[in-house]
Specification:
- The protein has about 850 residues and is of the alpha+beta class.
- The protein has three domains: about 375 residues, no CATH class; about 200 residues, tt1808, chain A; about 120 residues, no CATH class.
- It has 19 helices and 29 strands.
- Strands 2, 3, 4, 5, 6, 7, 8 and 9 form an eight-stranded mixed β-sheet that branches. It has a seven-stranded antiparallel β-sheet with strand order 10-11-12-13-14-16-15.
- The longest helix is centred in the middle third of the chain and has 20 residues.
- About 50% of the residues are buried.
- One of its GO terms (molecular function) is protein kinase activity.
Length: about 850
């Protein structure tokens, strides 16, 4: 096997029968399914019809209604080893409950009264309490990300055992809620009625938002909700692979009340006390307490103020970490996770959380300096290769002196696989597997429950054929801590970080035989304090969706292109023999906005994802960051990113990318010739590699492969320039709630066009779409130099006068900023003053005063 070092992979003509790349390593593209987007550009975008429709379709494909009886449902999905000793509730407690259509709000308090009477005989430390919260808004549970995600108003909230929440609090949050309920007036509004199809999935969306918030707030492995439809009830169990709902039953019947009692009893009596307060808790995790906080602040010492600025430590947690090769029965390593850096809040997904943390030894009161770590939690699709295996390959194949642009694995592994192995060793596991859906009364409290760090809901509800849809809980620790690209201190730092991430991608391919397949803005970090063993300005992390050759590439790989016949075999998927059409059941990889043109274009039948596509993704990442966080001359102004990266329509997304690659005029970044030139030259390389014929007469007439050498030379040449600005830190980007933009130039030349978007408020029974209620903060106006001609290399041309009218964040009020030739406006509408550049001969930038 040979792997080219100059060109890991070139683009190729894709066809339905093509399953190989032209060089390097390739991997079949997984079918892409409709999904909700985790990141949006505008407040309106999350409310657009396609977003809601995709979300609904994603949910409806993950809903299973259990077809067994209610006792079996409780046995399988709410496991407990403690029989309920209480007498069945008196049916008369619900006889006065008469739900009426259109009066659902009036039903909440009578329902709470019924539930209170059901749990009245529970031991005090196990008793649940209930609160009417339909008029109170609960934000996403992590403060730093709350404005980016849905708010919710659950109709009825349920406490943890022993906690009294019956008195309504002024500002409730998820910390005291263990479960929620949503009520509708009639049985005809049953969200889980399979005959309704998509018609009622908005009601499931409400339950899903609540379940997601509960799971993230408490680190739950599964969350429970109750849907009430008239007098009919369903119990629903959510995990990261699906939702399973029970058959419906009546709250007014003796049997129905007893089912509710049994469910509540089981919910507060997990199989073992060590499993937590309620069923679904993660026994390898606990929340931070005041003692943990004190220890952390003491150990951080002088760095505490900077590292903990803006951090809500009560959102932190202490977790156990086991290595995959750790001997059975050995103690885990504890880590204290104190700062959430990134979160994918989609429920049925990897649900990745990236934390900054430290190894935790509460008995250590020495002054030993702590080493900051990145701790990542994710739920991998069970048929995909565990991320730890990719890191192990990198450790085995990359020499110490060559290591750059990649983090090193410190520890961790697959908690789900570990738990399944332990479960399979139990005496009756074999019998349990054979009778997966056949339980008898005398076995109800004898069979150990299925593991919860690996989902079993598809297999329990549908059968073993659904194995491919299950997910397994990963927790890994890496050594390199970084900042998101969106927080660069200057644009040269941004470019250096991306250059080193590309080097890391190349190392992974050429040394490890690993193709990343998910290059995105969130997967590249700027490194502040690189480990002494491998200095770098940036890293490429998150190998969840990578593919890997069966064997590492030879160390003496030739520089020549390898033939299709010489393409290396790939490592098989996990459980490939047990899963029919496993390759087709993988979820599509790649963050939507950054997927290569060929892979997203519905007119291109491309089955192969190769290194060239990943290199193209680096271009889209750079463009994304520039449009969001720098001053530039894009005609759409604050709408530039939204206009360039539409979501929901593959045809539109591909069209916009194709259009961008064919544009003749470069995007000008204010007072930044190096970045302007780099972006334009990178665009030309990507354009050369795509299959559409070039439109510029001076461009090559045939496709030219995109290679590591060509791309890295661009970055190196840019970084070697001396005219980089010094004080051009990232401008914070917040999606606007209301957007009105006017861009014009004096005289007959129309530079831009006016675009107005009125706020559309969508609220359905307490459910609001992402970004629908942002805080009101001053707009950080951005005006850029505008020119219709490309400037000479190294010289930023002066623009005509322009005016940009924008509203304040969330206020609806507009203000106009006039920017004259050679001027820029800094963050917050303040004059940025002259910008110093290293060796720049361009004119300085001055912002006009209030009277300008």
């Amino acid at each position: 096997m040979s792997i080219s070092t100059g060109s890991m992979s070139s683009y190729h003509n894709c066809s339905a029968s093509d399953t190989s790349g032209s060089s390097g390593m390739s991997s079949n593209v997984s079918p892409r399914k409709p999904k909700s987007v985790n990141v949006v550009n505008t407040a309106e975008q999350a409310q657009q019809k396609f977003q809601i429709e995709h979300w609904r379709r994603e949910l409806v494909s993950k809903v299973n209604v259990y077809d067994g009886n209610l006792d079996d449902f409780l046995d399988l999905f709410v496991p407990s080893n403690t029989p309920c000793p209480l007498d069945a509730p008196d049916a008369r407690i619900a006889e006065d409950f008469r739900p009426l259509k259109g009066h659902e709000v009036e039903h909440y308090d009578p329902l709470i009264s019924i539930f209170n009477r059901i749990v009245a005989a529970f031991p005090e430390d196990k008793r649940l309490s209930f609160c009417n919260t339909h008029s109170q808004t609960l934000s996403f549970p992590f403060t730093g990300f709350a404005e980016h995600h849905h708010k919710a108003r659950p109709d009825i909230s349920v406490s943890f055992p022993g906690d009294d929440i019956s008195e309504r609090t002024k500002s409730p949050n998820w910390s005291r809620f263990a479960m929620v309920m949503e009520a509708k007036s009639t049985a005809a509004e049953d969200a889980f009625d399979v005959r309704a199809g998509l018609d009622r999935t908005n009601a499931i969306v409400q339950l899903a938002i609540n379940a997601r918030s509960l799971m993230f707030a408490h680190g739950l492995l599964a969350a429970y909700t109750i849907g009430i439809y008239g007098e009919m009830i369903r119990i629903a169990r959510f995990d990261h692979s699906s939702v399973v709902a029970s058959a419906s039953f009546s709250i007014k019947s003796q049997e129905g009340l007893q089912i509710i009692q049994e469910f509540f009893w089981r919910f507060v009596h997990p199989w073992k006390p060590s499993l937590g307060a309620v069923v679904g808790c993660d026994d390898t995790l606990r929340k931070m307490n005041t003692s943990d906080e004190a220890w952390l602040k003491k150990k951080l010492g002088a760095e505490a103020n900077s590292l903990l600025a803006g951090v809500n430590l009560r959102e932190g947690r202490v977790v156990d970490v086991w290595n995959d090769d750790q001997p059975e029965g050995s103690a885990p390593t504890k880590y204290l996770l104190f700062k959430l850096l990134e979160v994918n809040a989609r429920l049925f997904s990897r649900s990745t959380m990236v934390w900054m943390g430290v190894e935790y030894n509460e008995d250590d009161d020495t002054d030993t300096e702590l080493e900051l770590r990145i701790i990542k939690e994710a739920w991998r699709q069970i048929i995909r290769i565990p991320e730890s295996k990719f890191y192990n390959r990198l450790h085995q194949t990359i020499p110490e002196e060559e290591w750059t642009g990649l983090p090193r694995l410190v520890g961790g592994g697959d908690l789900g696989v570990r738990e399944v192995k332990e479960w399979e060793k139990t005496s009756n596991a074999a019998e349990s597997s054979r009778t997966l859906r056949s339980h008898t009364a005398n076995k109800r409290f004898q069979t150990p429950p299925r593991p919860m760090h690996q989902t079993f809901s598809w297999r329990l509800a549908v059968g073993d054929d659904a194995l491919a849809y299950e997910r397994s809980h990963m927790r890994i620790v890496v050594d390199t801590v970084g900042r998101p690209l969106s927080r660069f201190k200057n644009t040269r730092e941004l470019v250096a970080a991306m250059r080193d991430a590309i080097k890391g991608h190349r190392l992974a391919m050429e040394r490890g035989g690993i193709l990343h397949r998910d290059v995105s803005s969130g997967n590249i970090l700027i490194v502040d304090r690189p480990p002494p063993t491998h200095q770098c300005a940036g890293i490429l992390h998150d190998l969840d969706y990578s593919s890997m050759t069966l064997d590492p590439p030879p160390t003496n790989a030739s520089d020549g292109q390898q033939s299709d016949a010489a393409l290396p075999a790939l490592c098989p998927l996990e459980h490939e023999k047990q899963v029919k059409d496993a390759e087709k059941r993988k979820e599509r990889t790649g963050t939507y906005y950054f997927i290569a043109l060929e892979l997203i274009d519905p007119e291109v039948k491309c089955l192969v994802h190769n290194a060239g596509h990943d290199l193209e993704s680096f271009f889209w990442v750079l463009l994304w960051i520039v449009l969001r966080h720098t001053v530039h001359n894009h005609a759409s102004g604050l709408n530039a990113c939204d206009a360039t990266f539409p979501f929901g329509s593959d045809t539109l997304a591909a069209g916009m990318k194709s259009s961008w690659l064919r544009r003749s005029n470069p995007l000008l970044i204010a007072n930044n010739p190096p970045l302007t030139d780099l972006l334009d030259d990178f665009k030309d390389i990507v354009d050369d590699a795509t299959k559409q014929p070039p439109r510029k007469p001076n461009r090559p007439s045939s496709r030219v492969p995109i290679t590591y050498d060509r791309v890295l030379k661009l970055f190196d040449d840019a970084l070697n320039r001396t005219d980089w600005p010094e004080d051009d830190a990232a401008i914070p980007y917040t999606p606007l709630k209301t957007r009105t933009i006017s861009v014009y130039a004096p005289g007959p030349l129309q530079i831009g066009s006016k675009k107005s978007v009125k706020k559309r408020q969508r609220e359905e029974d307490g459910l609001e779409s992402d970004y629908s209620d942002l805080e009101s903060t001053p707009v950080e106006s951005r005006a850029a130099s505008v020119s219709s001609k490309r400037p000479r290399r190294g010289v930023a041309s002066a623009p005509p006068n322009i005016a940009i009218t924008v509203p304040s964040w969330g206020s609806g009020a507009t203000s106009t900023t006039r920017v004259e030739s050679g001027t820029t406006q800094g963050p917050g509408g303040k004059a940025s003053g002259s910008r110093k550049t290293k060796g720049s001969k361009g004119s300085s930038c001055k912002a006009p005063g209030p009277g300008a």
